[in-house]
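Hello Y.,

Per our agreement to keep a running log of every chain we model this quarter, I'm adding this entry. I've kept the format consistent with earlier entries: sequence first, then predicted structure.
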Amino acid sequence: MIFSKALAAIVAEFEKLPGIGPKSAQRLALHFLRRPEEEVRRFAETLVEARSKIRFCRQCQAFSESDLCMICADPSRNPAQICVVADVRDVSALERLNEYKGLYHVLHGLLSPMDGVGPGDLKIRELMARLEGGAVEEVILATSPTVEGDATALYLAQVLKPLGIRTTRLAQGIAVGAELDYADQATLLSAFQYRREM
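Predicted structure for the entry above:
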C-alpha cells in the first residue's frame, strides 16, 4: 500500500514503461526518492534533453541526433543492402555480431491487426522511397519469428516482389548448442525448412 499521493503518481508513471510491473515500479520510485535531489534533477534533465535532441534518421528511421545516424553516415557501409528490423534494439543486436556491413531500416513495430497496427502505422512508405532508383540489390527481412514478425515479413515480401529486388529472410531454427529432442515442433520444422547446402 502506498501512503503518499506523490509516490503513487511516480509509481503510476513507472508502470507505463514496458516490462515494468507494479512491484518494479514501486522499487524504482523508492530508489529515486532515496537519491540526492541533485541526482534526480540531473536524471530528469538528461531525459528531457535527450527527448528534445533525438529524432528519426532521415534515411533508416533509427534514432539520431543529426540528420543521418552514424550507420547511415558511414561511407564504408554497403548501400546496396538494407536490413529491415522492427525496432532500434534489433539494430544493436545485429551490430554486436560485427558481421553485417550494409544499412538498416527500422519499421518501429510489426503488423498486428489485433492491436490495430496496420501497414500505415509502420515506416513502410519510407522504406519504399529508399528503394526507388534501383541502387538497392537486397532487402533482408530480419523480423522476429513470431506471428506478427512473420506476417510483417510476408507482407513486405509481397510488396517488394514487383520491384525485382532480391528479398531474403533471416534463417530460423535450432539454437547453437541445443539438442534436437529438446526443441519444440515449430522450431524443428523451421530449422528443417530453412536448411542450407553444405
